[in-house]
Every structure is written in C-alpha cells, then in structure tokens.
Write a structure and sequence with these properties.
The structure is a homodimer.
Chain A: H1 3-10, H2 14-21, H3 29-42, H4 48-55, E1 60-65, H5 74-86, E2 90-95, H6 100-112, E3 117-120, H7 131-135, E4 140-143, E5 152-158, H8 159-172, E6 178-182, H9 188-203, E7 211-213, H10 218-232, E8 237-240, H11 243-255, E9 265-270, E10 283-286, H12 289-305, E11 315-319, E12 321-323
Parallel strand pairs in A: 1-2, 1-3, 3-4, 4-5, 5-11, 6-7, 6-8, 8-9, 9-10
Antiparallel strand pairs in A: 10-12
Helix pairs in contact in A: 1-2, 1-3, 2-3, 5-12, 8-9, 10-11
The first copy, chain A, binds a DNA duplex (16 and 16 nucleotides) through helix 2 and helix 4.
DNA sequence: ATGAAAGCGCTAACAG
DNA sequence: CTGTTAGCGCTTTCAT
C-alpha cells in the first residue's frame, strides 16, 4: 500500500495525494476530502524513509547520553520524547557507556540515519569524534562544554546559584564543619561544582578543608564518607557533587549508625527523581532535567529553522536551585551525640 | 557525498561500491581495497534511508514502554540498545505515558518509520491499537499478555518461583503475620503476583488475610502500610508486588519509627537497580530486566529471520528468583518491640 | 488547482 | 567479477 494506490482509489494523481496529506492549502477541499477518506479507510501511513530521502530532512534528532541507566537521564529522555512527538520528530537515542568505540559508533549511527541535529548530553566527549558531524554541518547542542562554532549551541549551567543557596542554608542551620565530596575532577561539570562550593564558603568566611574526591557513584559516596571521618573526624554537614554520592553517604551513615539529619546533614546535587524516595528524602540542588531537555530540544529546533543563515553560536542558560527536603537539620550540639544508639538487624 | 562520488573517485561502478561496502565476497580484493580507501578518506557513510527504501528493511526495532522514567525500564532500554548496536539495528523508543492518544501515536510512529519488529513492554495495551501492526505482519513480542497469533512471540514470566522463595524465606525466619501489598489488579502481571503469593502461602499452610491493594508507586506503598496497620495491626513481614511499593513501605516505616528489618521485614519485586540503593538494601524477587530485554530482542531477531515461513507463535520463559539483601530478618519476638525508640529530627 | 515526470541514494537483477 | 539500469515511495518542479 503506497501513495499510488491511494491516488488510484481517490482518482487523483500522486502529487495531489502528497499535497493533501501535507495539507498544502491550494488543494481543492473536495479532492482533499476524497484523499483523506481513502487514507483513513486503508489505514495508510506515509513512508518516512522515502520522505526523508527526497526532502533531505529525516525529522530525527540524535540524543547522546552516557548511560540510560544513569538516573540523571530518564527524565531527560522522556521530556525530549514528548517534545519530539509534538513536533513530529523522532529521537535516535545512543549511549556511549563511557566506551570510546561506542562514542564513535554513536556518531556513525547519527550520520547514517541522517539526523537533523544532535544533542550531546554526555558530560565529556572526545572532540575529535564530532568532526564528522561538524563537517556535515549537523546542528549540535552541548551542555557545559561546547566549542564556539556556528551551528553549535551551548547550554551553560549556573552551578553557583544553587550551591550558594545550599551552603547558606547549612550555615543558617549553624553548621561550620561542612564537607564537600567532589565528582571525578576531570569532568568540567564536577570541577565547576567544587569551585562553586569553594567560592560560596569563602563568601561567608567559613574555612574549607573538608574536601574529598568521589566519583559520582553511590559506592564513591560511601567510601568518601568513610575517608572523611577517618581523616578529619565527622563533619556535621556534607554537600555532595551529585545525588548518587549523597545516597552513598546516606547508606554509609546508616551502616555506621549515624542518624540523618539529626547527627549529619546531607545535601545532594541534580535532584534526580530518586532523591524524593530516599530515607529521609534528600535535600538537594536542583538542576532541572526537564528544563535541560527542553532547552536542548529548543536549541536544535532553532538551528534547523535557520540552517541556511550563518549565525553565531547561541547560548542558553540553566540555573540551579536548592530544594529543601528532609536530610538537613540544625547542627547537632555536643549533647545530641550518641543519645540513642541504633542497632539494625 | 554519495555512492556515485565514491564510485567516481575509486573508478568503479556504484554497484561495485555497494558490493564492497556490503562485503559481498565475490568482489575483487583489489577493487574492494580501492573503494574502502576512498570511503575512509572522505568519511563516507551510506544513507540508511535509501537503503531501507530499496531493501524494504529499515533495521529499526520499535520498543514501546509505559514510561522511561519508570525505574523498571532504563536497564531494559540499555540492554536492548547494546544488542541493537551489535546487530546493526537502531531502536525506536516510544512511551505511552498511560495515555491512549500516545499509544495510538506510538503505533503510528512505528509504522511510519517502517520498523522491522516491535517489542511491547508496557504491561497493558489496547489490543485494538495493534491492529495496524498485525495487519502489516510486523513481528511483535509481548510480555505476559500476548495473543497466540503468527508473528507474535510471548515472554511468559514465572512469577511463582520467586514469590514462593520469598514466602518460604519469610517463613523460615519464623514470620507468620505476612502481609502482601498488591499492584493495580487490572494488570495481569499484578494479579499473577498476588495469585502466586496466595498459592505460596497456602502451600505452607499459613493463613493469609493481610492483603491490601497498592498501585505500584511509592505513595501507594506508603498508604498501603498505613492502612494495613490501621486495619490489621502491624504485620511482621510484608511482601510487595513491586520494588517501588516496597520503597514506599520503607519510607513510611521510617516516618513511623519502625525499624527495618528488626521490627519489620520487607521484600520487593522486580529488583530494579534502585533496590540496591535503599536503606537498608532491599531483599527482592528478581525479574531480570537484562534477561527480559535479551529475550525480547532475540524473539524479534528470530521473527525477522523467518519472516517468510509461517510458523507458530513462539513462547519464551523468564523465571524469577529471590535476591537476599538486608531488609529481612528473624521475626521480632514480643520483647524486641519498642526497645530503642528512635526519634529522628 | 492538478498532473506528468524527474530524481533523492541506494540495491539487485540482468548482461556482459 | 563488474557495470548498466530499473526501481524503492515519496516530493517537487514544470506544464497545463
């Protein structure tokens, strides 16, 4: 069943069918109705491949993430898909799983399917791999780390704003021993968070020597807390570079019989969905995933709209905000300590 | 840059380029090498749309889920993608978000892109919507609920096996007041779990009147525990129809100062990744998401392999197993109760 | 306003 | 073994 069959049955030319389906305004309403009737009757769906071939536009956007199983991404994918559906786009989702071969393959897949644009949401991607996309002038959008070239949009994250709120929240609760667990510092995003923490602390004149490196995983958070305690003694509050780290801290605290938040306040970063489900629910700095997805999609749509004009790289901005939940409390006074030791199992 | 340009530069015909690229064994190694050199040099990637158009195979598999943000799915999507990559397939991911319009759109999108097969992993989908796919003989694979028609594969889940293990584990820990929180009972999968629970309990002769309906969400788990306690008094163990429910129970228990597992044992179902990250880590019945994805993909691959032959609907089987973590313990004796009341905040 | 026909990039007969 | 050529299903001039 193809356009010709519709044409035959509606007794018009294929051109008219095409026009009717694409709602070209100049077609006679009579004919159009006739066409649509047949279309509905037969349950005809135009072949997108053929369309793409002739039009040169696939109506597919690529979306490159590091791993779908990273809780940061599902929300993004969902929003991206919702927007895609609204705009008659499809999304080609690829994950690099931190594997250079897969990164290369991601790019290849994008090009083979002739995507109209790519959002690169993996925090850290070999520049060289993107050559092919650049060369073909495929519109690109990056988070945090994009180069300033035409057809490349960047979403800049304002880490400081949310982290400052977090630090001041802790200070207001009379915390002074505030620790920070970083992410892997080779990531720009992790470095930026640490820097924001340092700045926020210095702004309010609290000394900051309680810093440990984590790796943005739960296990990393667990061992970071262990190390923190071993090296510096227990802090009264910990700010983490991401939520998974904070979840690790929660978990390790549970193991050590440290009560959250009465004995230790914990703040995460990202506000992944999961942060609402921890015990206790995690206070965290929100970097809205839906907003991020929305910006990325918007950036791509803008680019495809103005493909021809050579315009400057556009900049988008995403701010961060503290979300208060229940993992923070007033700093414990000495007398609070060890009041009711807890014995699990 | 297209196949003709490669042909021109390699001084061969387009047919030869095509053959070389597709590694047809009969091409002269000399020519093949010449072609590949040009291909590499120019960074040429064949246009999949054109390929699909002529071959009639898109090398795309559809994957319909209910919501990507449901923690049950990311693992599945990841595995599915890994397999797709290995087999030079692409995956068209759509979510129904429980919206009939989106379900319909899902099907339409699948057909428009001419997918070679569809895995339907949403537990519950209007049969009528699939007419279009059936009509076009698109290979389908269902979980739990598929009809027995040609080109339709089914993955049957053995719920009983894991649930029986869970019940017996609890019984072995001397629990007798064992409650069950169901999922939404209109879902076959939820009903099957409840039935398996009932059977497992009756097998070992423990009376079972502690049953409440939940809805497979955390909130549902929280209110189910509340209701359970209000109506029947506190049970010593709870088996939940899925992990999110169990997480809700954990959360509500925390609010009520009930210790897990010393005062209350909790078991989930699914073994979503998140189950490892709860405090305490959740003992749960595993229904391997990677295995499920693998079976679904395999089923689709099998179907496309034998498109022509008209063969019977194939059946696949996935078993479930108890994973011991730390949310279960010996049933509390009366003297254990309320020993060390916990006062958070 | 409608139709005839060219052609998007590729593969697969069919010849040679 | 290689080249020529006819389409795959659709959109889009160009005539009418």
């Amino acid at each position: 069943m193809d356009i010709r069959e519709i044409a035959r049955r509606a007794k018009v030319s294929t051109a008219t069918v095409s026009r009717a389906i694409n709602r070209v305004p100049t077609v006679d309403p009579q004919l159009s109705k006739r066409v649509w009737r047949v279309v509905e009757e037969l349950g005809y769906f135009p072949n997108t491949q053929a369309r793409a071939l002739v039009s040169g536009r696939s109506r597919i956007f690529g979306l490159i993430v590091s791993e779908i199983t990273n809780p940061f991404f599902p929300e993004i994918v969902q929003t991206f898909e919702n927007l895609a559906v609204e705009n008659n786009y499809e999304i080609l989702l690829t994950s690099t799983v931190h594997d250079p071969r897969r990164m290369e393959l991601s790019v290849r897949r994008m090009i083979e399917r002739r995507v109209d644009g790519v959002a690169i949401l993996t925090f850290g991607m070999e520049e060289s791999l993107l050559q092919h996309l650049r060369f073909r002038q495929v519109p690109l959008v990056f988070v945090d780390v994009g180069p300033d070239t035409p057809h490349v949009a960047n979403i800049r994250i304002d880490y400081l704003s949310g982290i400052r709120q977090a630090v001041q929240h802790l200070a207001a609760l009379r915390h002074t021993r505030i620790a920070f667990i970083t992410g892997p510092l080779r990531l720009k995003s992790a470095l930026a968070r640490k820097t924001a923490f340092l700045q926020s602390m210095s702004e309010i004149g609290i000394p900051t020597n309680l810093i440990t490196e984590g790796d943005h995983t739960m296990e990393g958070g667990m061992s970071a807390l262990t190390k923190l305690i071993a090296v510096h003694g227990r802090p009264t509050a910990i700010l983490c570079s991401n939520d998974m780290t904070a979840i690790g801290v929660l978990r390790e605290a549970f193991e050590r019989d440290i009560r959250i938040p009465s004995e230790l306040s914990v703040i995460g970063f990202d506000d992944i969905r999961l942060a609402q489900f921890t015990t206790p629910p995690l206070t965290t700095v929100q970097m809205s995933q839906t907003e991020l997805a929305r910006l990325a999609f918007q950036a791509l749509m803008n680019e495809v709209g103005q493909m021809s004009e050579d315009h400057q790289a556009s900049e988008y901005r995403l701010t961060t905000n503290l979300i208060l939940r229940r993992s923070t409390a007033l700093a414990p006074t000495t007398s609070d300590r060890k009041k009711a030791p807890r014995k699990p199992v």
